[in-house]
Amino acid sequence: MERFLAVFREIWESMEFLEQEHWGDANTVVVRNRVCFRARASGKQVDTLIMQLITVRDGRMPECRPFYWDPQAVAEACGPGTDDA
């Protein structure tokens, strides 16, 4: 998790949670987030949804699988920014 967060900080300048809902039980949680990212390299902002499937064991989170609603927009924001228009 520490390595993930270190890389995350390198890529994203900011991340704002706009909405959040969660469902689940003692072993599995699903979280729906509407977030706004701003990329460091391009300065681009992305407003998107992320669903996370989280596994819980003994009070710890051994697995978290994020699913991005618009992975292309996230990838494009991470790049240096190329406008083909």
Automatic annotation (TrEMBL):
This is SnoaL-like domain-containing protein. SUPFAM superfamilies: NTF2-like. It comes from Sinosporangium siamense.
